[in-house]
Amino acid sequence: MSRDGNVVDEKKGTSALAPGQRWSVARKREVVMRLLRGEALDQVSRELGVEARRIVERFVTHYNGERLHSALGYVTPDDVLADRQREIWARRDRKLEAARVLRAERRAAAREEAKVA
Questions:
Q1: pLDDT score for 18
Q2: Whether the predicted model's global pTM rises above the 0.90 cut
Q3: What range defines the domain where residue 60 resides?
Q4: What's the structural domain count of the chain?
């Protein structure tokens, strides 16, 4: 808006009032457009805010409840808070030991077959 109260197109530097057009009509148009633009942007920002909140909640849930953290001994923060890390480590140790035994048995069976053949 210029100093004398006319609506000015800032890109062109010219007045938006047509010859003979009254200020009140132009002002009304400007106000209506500003309101429409503002409402549209508010709607978009609300929708983006809801979507952003949903994305952040999903990330936090994954980060705290599913992702294994090396600094915590490859358990989740939720498991640490619930003091379940010792149980998890013990279960992993049992699985690893069972896998070692199974591999040793398979290697021994393969050696026996190689001797026979």
A1: 61
A2: no
A3: 1-67
A4: 2
